[in-house]
Amino acid sequence: MATVKNSWNSSIKNGEYQRKESQFRNWITADGSAGISGHDGFKAEAGRYHLYVSLACPWAHRTLVFRQLKGLEDLITVSVVHPDMHDKGWSFNHDKESAKLYGTTGDDLYGGGYISEKYLVQDPNYSGVNSVPILWDKKNKVIVNNESSEIIRIFNSAFNHITGNTRDFYPETLREKIDLENEFIYHNINNGVYKTGFATSQEVYDKHVVKLFSALDQVEHKLSKQRYLTGDELTEADWRLWVTLVRFDSVYHTHFKCNLKLIEQYPNIYHFMLELYQMPNIAKTVNEAHIKRHYYASHLALNPYGIVPISHQQDWTKPHNRERQFN
Ligand SMILES: N[C@@H](CCC(=O)N[C@@H](CS)C(=O)NCC(=O)O)C(=O)O
Question: The pTM is what?
Fold first, then answer.
C-alpha cells in the first residue's frame, strides 16, 4: 500500500500512522556552551526566548506546563496560534473573538501569517513538518529546538540560576525509571491515541485501540499502589502522561474512537488527572475550547462537517483522593 501524506506531523503507511522526527535540536545552557547533543549552545537569559504553541497540541502543552512549573512565565514569552489547522498549517489568524475563546495571540513578535514562516526563515528549502511547539531565540531570530521532550528538559534546569527554582522533574536517581515510563507511555498512550485515531484499516485500528487500553489498565493498576508513575515523587513522566489524559474524554474518546472506556471510569487515573490539574498555575495551561475546536474542525477526513460535539463537561474542581496512604 502507498504512503499517504497526512496534514499532521506524520504520514500513513499500510494503514499505520507514522510520526516524523523533529529537526531542530539545540540546547540552552546556563553559560551557552554546547549542549548534550553537540549542537551550538544558547545562553540562558531572561527575555531572550519565546514559545510558539497551539493550546490543542499535547506536545506543546508539555512545554507550557514546564514553563509554569519552573517559574518561567516572566522569562519566556508565548504566542498562541489559531486552533484550525488546514492546508497551510498552523496560522496566526487572530481577532477579539478568537482571543477570547481560544486564547490566540497572533504572531505578536513579527506579525507573521503562518508557523511555516518560522521554518522557512531558517532554511528557504525547508521541507520538514511545520509543527509546534517551537522554542525561538528572539536575539538571533532562529529556532532553538522544536522537540517538546527536549524543551521540557531545557526548562527543567537551564534557567535555575536565574529563577532560583530548583524543582527537578528529572532527578538523577529516578532517570532510569522515568525513561522507562516515558517510553511505555509515549508509544502506547501519547502516540497510541493518534495511532488509533488515524488508522486507515480496521485491523490497524483494532490493534492500537486494544494496546492503548491495555496500557491504561496497567497505569490504573500502578496508580492504585503508588501516587505517581515512578513512586511517591512527581516527575516529568507524570506530566507527559497528563497532557493526554486531559484531552481524552472530550476528544480522543469520540474523535479518535478510543472509546472502550472514559478516563472517568479509571478511578486512580481520574483522580491523578484531577490532582495534577489542581496544582498551582496548571489550570491556566488548559483551554478546552481551543483543544476541541482544533481536533474536530481540523481533521476533516475524520469529521467532514467539522462539528464540535458538546461533550461531557469535566468538573476539574472536584476534590481528588490522591493524598491517601499507599501500601
Ligand atoms: N515531536 C514533536 C511533535 C510535535 C507535533 O507533532 N505537533 C503537531 C501538533 S500536535 C503539529 O504541529 N503538526 C503540524 C503538522 O503536522 O503540519 C514534539 O514533541 O515536539
Answer: 0.95
